[in-house]
User: What shape does this take?
Amino acid sequence: MTTVRPDTLQPDTLHPDALASGTIESEVRSYCRAFPTTFVSARGSELFDHTGRRYLDFLAGCSALNYGHNDPDMAGALVDHLTTGGITHGLDLRTEAKERLLDRFDQVVLRPRGLGYRVQFTGPTGTNAVEAAIKLARKVTGRSTVVAFTNGFHGVTLGALAATGNSHNRAGAGALPLSGVARAFYDGYLGPDVDTAAVLEAVLDDPSSGFDPPAAFLLEVVQGEGGLNPASTAWLRRIAALAQRVGALLIVDDIQAGCGRTGPFFSFEGTGVVPDLVTLSKSISGFGLPMALVLVRPELDQWSPGEHNGTFRGNNLAFVTAAVALDKFWSDGRLTADVDRRARFVRSTLESLAALGPGWRVKGRGLMVGLDVGTSGAAAAVSAGCFQQGVIIETAGPRDEVVKVLAPLTTPDAQLAEGMAIVADVVRSVAAGPHAEVAA
Ligand SMILES: Cc1ncc(COP(=O)(O)O)c(C=O)c1O
Assistant: This one.
């Protein structure tokens, strides 16, 4: 159980002005710029900084902490594992922790949903799972082009970055061409009256369109970094059917939207679409520990041993907490029901705020929901104002114009109400200030 440790606080050495992160940490650091304090401890949906100040964490490790910080059952299992000499690093050796996790994943997640996937452990980041999925799709189909969608975000290593739309991230590749990807329009990108699945179908059916037959379609069911854009079930079904017809694999990147963020365990549940490959990371360990995997239809599991390897595919500490998380949160439908209830509350609060600004609107699904306030200036002002009032909340979207509520799924209703009241106050003051005029 986490406790706040005031006895260890060192306000002088931990003051932002005195920190090494301001001097020797690379310029690439980002979140710590938006939330300039030094965090010391955390519990559930609360974070505490070096002055003992409490914050509500509505960023939740960008969805890596769906069950909050330091869940006591996961912490207990981790401590037991460590104090009994359990394996911490195991390459991809068979270990007790891995066996247990695979068993729980099969029993609690796959079988109840009628899914027969194999589980490929990749390097422990989302982007490495995406690399593995697109490599496998290319290997299996013998084709090279991956169709990725406008506003998609899939990571920043070169293969995944080629599929990522964001120009700021893409610029990080320097002069190297980001190749092997054809860009298609995501659902709704061309407005409500254009069926972008039909557009993709038209170009893939036209032998003179210039589109090579693709190895895969890679998509998020709800785009996270791209601004909380949900795909409709009809669009997803059409895309899945098209993939099958043209011999491309359907890869669903569930790294941010999975593990209950939209309600069910997988974001595609209930759509009737069963992807060929699924990437998972972020909250799969349940505890914020690094872990990533690809779910692979068995007949597509055409890797030869070690072909996509990586030293840290066997983070046994993550396996320990992941197994506890699955048993604790996914053995019944309670968490999904909680997410649905909490999501209704957050959405209705945001909807009442959307009326305050010109063109402001609520976006997203489940507890992956936010308020588009039109400009990055307004969204940044909301984020900064919330931080001053004790709520950590980030922005997303092509121009960082969406205030994104990513509270842990387990946030107690009272804390959710407390945090949303602060968000509402700050949004009201931003709506009344200069940023609203910029948006207009
Ligand atoms: C949908 C999606 N895919 C891939 C990634 C990349 O994951 P990571 O940052 O762990 O490499 C992210 C990260 O935000 C993501 O949201």
Q: What stands out?
A: The CA atoms of residues 1 and 72 lie 5 Å apart. The two ends are 48 Å apart (CA to CA). The longest helix spans residues 334-354.
